[in-house]
């Protein structure tokens, strides 16, 4: 291993601030509303791609798997992402719908962790999401091979060209595997960094049909 890089890792600074305050007393009674408040705050503070989040799933053997996805929407029912149901994560979700989402916005020292269960939305809603994608993104999805082994990069280029031509002929083409998923949360934690390491943690947990709030030790 490169010693220089190892030293750089050890010397790297984190959570330098300055960070905003987080007044737990003023938080809403449900985590979805607080997400909206924090998301607006992230936008106001120029957080880069605040809608990027880590989705963790679990495979058949019980091993967790994580990757970054785009948050597509949020409402009272949950958080939404879209992907191919034929992908590795799609297969994992079919087997085990339990997931977690994690957002980290370093410039404001905020982390949001969401644990819940996914529900696959209707083909109609999935198609509407697909139609909002750019042409190349649509063409890539139409190949329907996400997460499969690519033996030769030329195969990808050829398949992409073919799908782009197909889309030019018929712009209404929709991938049959493209799926919108809803994460129905049962636990959501809001974590605010503090320069003096007195980090603030607030967790919402679903108890029946109401949310409870607790502060956690940092
Ligand atoms: C910023 C960013 C956004 C991404 N957004 C998506 C997305 O919305 N949907 C998607 O299927 N993959 C997205 N990806 C690619 C995934 O991270 C991942 O490589 C892909 O979905 C395959 O994952 P899987 O093999 O676990 O199924 C994104 C990657 C990055 C870095």
How would you characterize this protein structure?
With 218 residues, the protein is an alpha+beta fold. The chain has a single domain, classed as Pnp Oxidase, Chain A. 30% of the residues lie in helices and 33% in strands. Strands 1, 2, 3, 4, 5, 6, 7, 8 and 9 form a nine-stranded antiparallel β-sheet that branches. Strand 5 and strand 6 form a beta hairpin. Helix 5 packs across helix 6. The model has no long low-confidence stretch (mean pLDDT 97). The structure holds flavin mononucleotide. Flavin mononucleotide is lined by residues 52, 65, 67-70, 81-83, 87-89, 146-147.
Ends: how far apart? Answer: 33 Å
Number of structural domains: 1
Q: Supply the helix-strand structural class.
A: alpha+beta
The CATH architecture would be: Roll
Q: What is the name of the CATH superfamily? A: Electron Transport, Fmn-binding Protein, Chain A
Ligand identities:
flavin mononucleotide
Work out the number of β strands. Answer: 9
The pLDDT mean sits at 97
| Name of the level-1 CATH class | Mainly Beta
Largest sheet: 9 strands, antiparallel
Q: What's the helical proportion of residues?
A: 25-40%
Global geometry: globular
């Amino acid at each position: 291993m490169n010693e220089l890089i190892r030293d750089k890792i050890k010397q790297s600074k984190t959570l330098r601030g300055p960070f905003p305050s987080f007044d737990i007393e003023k938080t809403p009674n449900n985590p979805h509303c607080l997400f909206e408040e924090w998301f607006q705050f992230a936008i106001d503070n120029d957080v880069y791609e605040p809608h990027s989040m880590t989705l963790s799933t679990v495979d058949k053997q019980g091993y967790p798997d994580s990757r970054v996805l785009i948050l597509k929407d949020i409402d009272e029912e949950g958080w939404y992402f879209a992907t191919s149901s034929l992908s590795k994560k799609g297969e994992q979700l079919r087997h085990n719908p339990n997931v977690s989402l994690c957002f980290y916005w370093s410039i404001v020292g905020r982390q949001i962790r969401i644990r819940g269960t996914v529900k696959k939305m209707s083909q109609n809603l999935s198609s509407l999401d697909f139609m909002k994608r750019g042409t190349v993104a649509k063409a890539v999805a139409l190949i329907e091979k996400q997460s499969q082994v690519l033996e030769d990069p030329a195969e990808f280029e050829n398949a992409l060209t073919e799908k782009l031509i197909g889309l030019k002929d018929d712009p209404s083409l929709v991938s049959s595997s493209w799926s919108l998923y809803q994460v129905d949360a049962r636990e959501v934690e809001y974590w605010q960094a503090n320069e003096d390491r007195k980090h603030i943690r607030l967790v919402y947990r679903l108890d029946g049909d109401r949310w409870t709030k607790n502060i956690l030790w940092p």
